[in-house]
Amino acid sequence: MANMKQIAELAGVSLGTVSHVLNGTAKVREPLRKRVLDAVQQCGYQPSQLARGLRRDRTNMIAMIIPDIVNPFFPSVVRGAEDVAFADGYRLILCNTDNDHTKEIVQLKALQSYFPAGLIVIPSNFSDLTAQARSYRENGAAVVCVDRLPPNWDGDTVTSNNIEGGHKATRYFIEHGHRSIAIITGPLFLTNAQDRLEGFRQAMCTAGLEIPPGLVQETTFDQAGGYAKTRVLLRLLPRPTAIFAGNDMIAIGALRAIKEAGLRCPDDLSLIGFDGLEIVDMITPSLTSIYQSPYQLGATAARMVLDRVKGQKLPARHIVLETELQVRESVATLHSPLV
């Protein structure tokens, strides 16, 4: 691969002139500039982004950290961020934490050595990003948290309206006559799980419905957790008539437990998920779900990073995206609806 010295020799100019043309550090007369660019094209020269970063304290890379690359929700968040970054000449570096805060810290420290222009983080379990975010900002990088918020976070954020989504799901059950409604939440140390539970509680309270302790079950945001906690709910007497699942993966696990128990959804037990993943159209019955746009979460976060990179001096911004109830086949209407 050609280097800058070879470019200088081919163009018949000094090494400093080549550096000024490639890095934009000084104005170069047009004839010389054209000779350098022609030599660059002839040699197929590709500048080292890391070397540029060492000189400028910033590369054209945006780092992104997600908690679970296997969960189908997160790749769409990444795609939204990558599309916006790419369109603006930036490249996205992706790391996965497996929801492990220790691994998250290792990734954050390693990524900082690449001098990213910005950092987009979906925090892991028990995440505390205060010190790491301060370090990135001191080095000129923009930092945005997405979907979940770590404790004491005072920076830019992009989230969905999880309280509203939880309220919509619960209200839909109530409007269809359900009075004994259970919820299987995600881990309640995560802010999105907390907010979905809050929306559930608000809708139940407004309707004058009690929530016995056994009808609130906490688990992980995956199928295994949904399956295990639904089996617990099915042993209750009386059994709830509806379950609001904290995300679609929990709901899919719940549906498996319902079928294994010899019950039918929605005839014996109604079910609503959260996320609106494409897969919920393909299962039987198709799943009614609260839709949030993972693509827009990622795209919005990337735009916020680029705004900061381009020098916008704004107070911390907190963007909340709306949710939508997508009605499918998993909710039955009881004979005595409560409105």
Q: What's the SSE blueprint?
A:
Blueprint (H helix, E strand, L loop, with lengths): L3 H8 L3 H9 L6 H14 L5 H8 L4 E6 L6 H15 L3 E6 L4 H12 L5 E4 L8 H9 L3 E5 L9 E5 L1 H14 L5 E5 L5 H16 L9 E3 L4 H12 L7 E4 L2 H13 L9 E6 L12 E4 L2 H16 L8 E4 L2 E3 L13
Parallel strand pairs: 1-2, 1-3, 3-4, 4-5, 5-11, 6-7, 6-8, 8-9, 9-10
Antiparallel strand pairs: 10-12
Describe this structure in words.
The longest helix is centred in the middle third of the chain and has 16 residues. By secondary structure, this protein is α/β, with parallel strands linked by helices. It is built from twelve helices and twelve strands. Helix 1 packs across helix 2 and helix 2 packs across helix 3. The model has no long low-confidence stretch (mean pLDDT 90). The strands form two sheets. It has a six-stranded parallel sheet, sandwiched between helices. Strands 7-6-8-9-10-12 form a six-stranded mixed sheet, with helices on both faces. It has three domains: 44 residues, Orthogonal Bundle (434 Repressor (Amino-terminal Domain)), CATH 1.10.260; 133 residues, Response regulator (Rossmann fold), CATH 3.40.50.2300; 132 residues, Rossmann fold (3-Layer(aba) Sandwich), CATH 3.40.50.
